[in-house]
Amino acid sequence: MSEQVAVNKVAADAASTAQLVKLLLFSLSLGIVPIASYFGSLEYVWNGNATYAALTAVVGANIVLVGYIISSVLDDKRETSSPTKETKKTQ
Amino acid sequence: MSICPPYAPFFGFAGVASAMVLSTVGAAFGTAKAGIGIAGLGTFKPELIMKSLIPVVMSGIIAVYGLVVSVLISGSVLPDHYSLFAGFTHLGAGLACGCTGLAAGYAIGLVGDSCVRAYVQEQKVFVGMVLILIFAEVLGLYGLIVALIMNTKAISVDVC
Fold this sequence. Notes:
Helix content of chain B: over 70%
Oligomer: heterodimer
Order of helices and strands of chain A: HH
Order of helices and strands of chain B: HHHHH
Subcellular location (chain B): Vacuole membrane
Helix content of chain A: over 70%
Structural class of chain A: mainly alpha
Keywords (chain B): Hydrogen ion transport, Ion transport, Membrane, Transmembrane, Transmembrane helix, Transport, Vacuole
Largest sheet of chain B: none
Pfam family, one (chain B): ATP-synt_C
Protein name (chain B): V-type proton ATPase proteolipid subunit
Radius of gyration of chain B: 19 Å
GO molecular function, one term (chain B): proton-transporting ATPase activity, rotational mechanism
């Protein structure tokens, strides 16, 4: 019983480290992606048209947002399905 | 009374500053208010924290809108051959983006706080929360679109 508790705690620590890394990556990309896409698309894609470059930056920021929502929902589904698998193994 | 006075860039840079400052105030309020709710949720159900951070990410997007408009306007302000018309237009663009970002951040903060607290007790609130937050965020997007249109008008007219 105590062994299972210890294993669960180690798994939870590993999962929370992974979650922290994922959160850090999303925060950095929320800062980097809009500015990088603005200047990059201004230079290489739209030939100096600043309005289209700004729209590209906005689309990039919203893509990062949608990616965060999807990854958090998938995380939640993975967490709710794995405890039921563990209980089935112990039975 | 010239059309391109030397003090015209004052209004242009006032637009740049107001876009960044006001949208950041809105994003800060949204982050803080939603963060209070998330801290309350975290004591009861820590496994729900990742999904309940969505209001905070959306507040960050509001600040990104202000950043993009600031960078866009400051790329068009010139020391010379910059008309007062362009200065006023850039000021209006910055104020449009900044004040709508303030409103959107305020809405995201209040909605995020109460919906996150309700999410502890009822899991099905999540979809409704995301929909309400998206509608609150689109308010900031409208301000950004108006700022883009005004900026296009400012740089297209060449008078001196």
